[in-house]
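Continuing the batch. This is chain 6 of the set; chains 1 through 5 are on the previous pages. Same settings as before, nothing changed between runs. Recording input and output for traceability.
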Amino acid sequence: MAQLDEWCDEAALVHWVQDAEEPPSRVQAHRRLQTEGRRSTVSCPWEGHRRFEIREPRTSAGVAFK
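Output for chain 6:
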């Protein structure tokens, strides 16, 4: 992902070890990213990236997960 900082205006990451074999839900991943994550460097960040605003996950129909 050498060009990630050029392609994106926002990027974040979080690392954790999980005992369960199934991946976390979108809601769990979002919550964890907000509380333990960090911004990744991008060349042209949007203002929300600077404030570390992470939008809540949405379905393909645009409906927010709860």
